[in-house]
Design brief:
Blueprint: E1 4-5, E2 17-18, E3 57-62, E4 67-74, E5 93-96, E6 106-111, E7 135-140, E8 145-157, H1 163-167, E9 173-181, E10 193-203
Parallel strand pairs: 4-5, 6-9
Antiparallel strand pairs: 1-2, 3-4, 3-7, 5-6, 7-8, 8-10, 9-10
Amino acid sequence: MAAAGLALLCGCTGTAAAPARPASGGGALPAAAASVPRNSPATAPAAGAEPMGRSVPVRLRVPAIGVDTAVMPLGLAADGTVQVPPIAAHSPAGWYDGSPTPGQTGPSVILGHVTVGSHGDGVFVRLGRLRRGDRVTVVRRDGTVAAFAVDSVQTVPKPRFPSAAVYGNVDHAALRLITCGGTRVTGGGGYPDNVIVYASLVAGP
């Protein structure tokens, strides 16, 4: 797996390995690149819907935690790290464009801040409160809506980020929502953990 850092600044400092190319569907999930210490996403995916064609995400809604946000595309920065949404009031979530679009076969990755500096809470401040079965909907540029159900929620120390579980190939349309977690380190040290939501497509157009 090619490595490129994923960093969420100001509330998501630290890195997690990410593939530099889109993950293609159809393959089994590879062996984990790092051990998973707790809240493992071992729960079987929800009964899935047929995968959708490619169309980039433009809006994300997670009613259980009050999220209704635009989605901006995020590519790779010059240093090989994944770009992040701006540190600004009302900063949106961001879709990593090296992953499949939501609804396509494979793991589509959307990330967001837990805090945005002096502006306060980020769009994913309540991400860790999600539970199995909660719905996540993604509006796509072609007007279609991809609906996902949460399979599991995982909190891991950043040095043990489960890159293969998050970015590795899967045989269904999947979604990963990522932010930071744990107790904020004083003095601008960010957060020690990542919160990862694993979800599966349950309805398309």
